[in-house]
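fold-stage: in
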Amino acid sequence: MSMLELYKALKLPVKATLPEVKAAYRQFAKRHHPDTAAISRSSELFISVTQKYQNYIRHYQKNRLLQFPNPKKTGPMPQESPRPNIRIVQFKLGKMLASDPHPTVRAFAASSLGNSGKKSAYAYLRKSLDEKNNLVLKAVIKAIGKLRIYQSAGEMGALFVHSKLEIKKLILDMAGDMGKGFNNIFIAGMKDKDSGIRRKSVNLFARHNG
């Protein structure tokens, strides 16, 4: 979704101010939030607009989050330090993932942590591996795979053994992409009661250990 499409979805002119955008988004969320909207298409629209809105807010606040003076320069305007900005955004997403009451918002937070490219996001993602909502749990697994967190092999293996078929398939796909470091999952999969899981696990083990 482009910024123009965001303004259109919020029914705003392109020169709208930040308070106007925030107010319009609040009204939009009331109408289209998946927990209150009547049609499933609203869920997709809500996620798309929310992602673009979050990007807009982060961009707007980029020069306002924890600025520190640069000792190499003089003058009244402090230079931005980007690293604290990244940490703050990551912390907010982690808090959203852990405590927001709406599954779609938690799933969005997990996906955003995965898209951050920062392996430190695993500290937040791993806490949600016991998530009961499938939408959120799948987003967490995909995010960990996208970040290529090899240290997650043990926790993913434990989750694999106790999960339903849909989640097992997703974990197996992630392990297949990661490779030999996830042999524990391939071995567990070879013993699974589902023939499809057993067959795929054998093939993946052979591919990465041949």
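fold-stage: in (second)
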Amino acid sequence: MQNRITGRRERWCPIVSASGSNPQPPRSDADRVVPTSLDALIERDNAQGLIAPDSDCVVSSRVRLARNLIGYPFVHRATPDQLNDLVHRVQSARMSGPFQAGVRWVNVQATAAIDRLLLFERNLISRPFVESPHPRCVAISSDETTSVMVNEEDHLRLQMLAPGLQLQPLASRMFALDASLERSLEFSFHPRFGYLTACPTNVGTGIRVSAMLHLPALIMLDEIDRMKRAAKDMHLAVRGFHGEGTEAIGDFFQVSNQTTLGRSEIDLVEEFTLSIVPQFVAYERTARQTLVERDPASLDDRVFRALGILRSCRLLALEESLKFLSRIRLGVALGRVSDVTLAQVDRLLVEVQPAHLARSMGHELNTAQDEELAKDASPHTGKNRDDRAARATMVRASLNA
């Protein structure tokens, strides 16, 4: 393939050849059956609940690509018929890599609001995708590390997730998937500007690289503004627990690049892996060491008070659970809590959220409650609901096991 604006095809060609050379057989209609229930997602562990490099401070890594197809208007200008045609085009494309082991296609438009929210809580779809009025679907790999949103802000939003700091292996797999799709679909590309996207900040490579950071010590020492200033100086975006459009809760922050034009994918991934994320990790680890040396009793009091509350509480709001889980996670990472693991805490960070809680406890919500839950997935959701008791029961059972 010719060298485009980024030169990626030449530099990553060996990886693409190794990972994407075996095309998939055409999928039958049965392979594209769209489930209305997502019980399988409840029954398996979320991919983020695994231990990986730098997981004491880096909860997860994400690589995302934005792509649009030639011959169709952008999503916000397209007709429902055009968007439905896009869905069928993408479902018929051959996807290699993580999808070779199996793919689950979810018709998001026809899925219950609580299940749309569940996908959002597992970071498989974006917040705007939950409530979008457009015809849309998402492909999810069997291991939940990869999803392809069709008709989000762009025609395609490809994303891959991994626990800890694993941006380089994620990027390798992402470029292989991108290349396999480009053999079946013609992406909108300009010789000068690169891949064309609905939002100008994505024009160029269309790549977003991000890491979810756990920074409780910087919060405790009132040094989080230092981290935010450093991010601003490096032209990075700092967002909340679920990325764009969400607030920082439980001391979790997502750091990502803001622009893609003029930067190669490889350079950006390498900069995040070797410089940007390690710098923030170093800030946090220094702050943690300061807490240990300055006042270990106060540190232990915060950690074990949180652990005691979660092991004994009878009513628990989402905001409280995330705050206390953050403190316990800090204690585990510092070796001060020995009977809880990081993987256990990271699983709970997902399972305490509203849709997961409702689905795992077998709650039956009517349509009005369902839609209300999807529209109000804030940290305060559940303050006046019976799910506070259910959340407390679930957390107690996990931490007392």
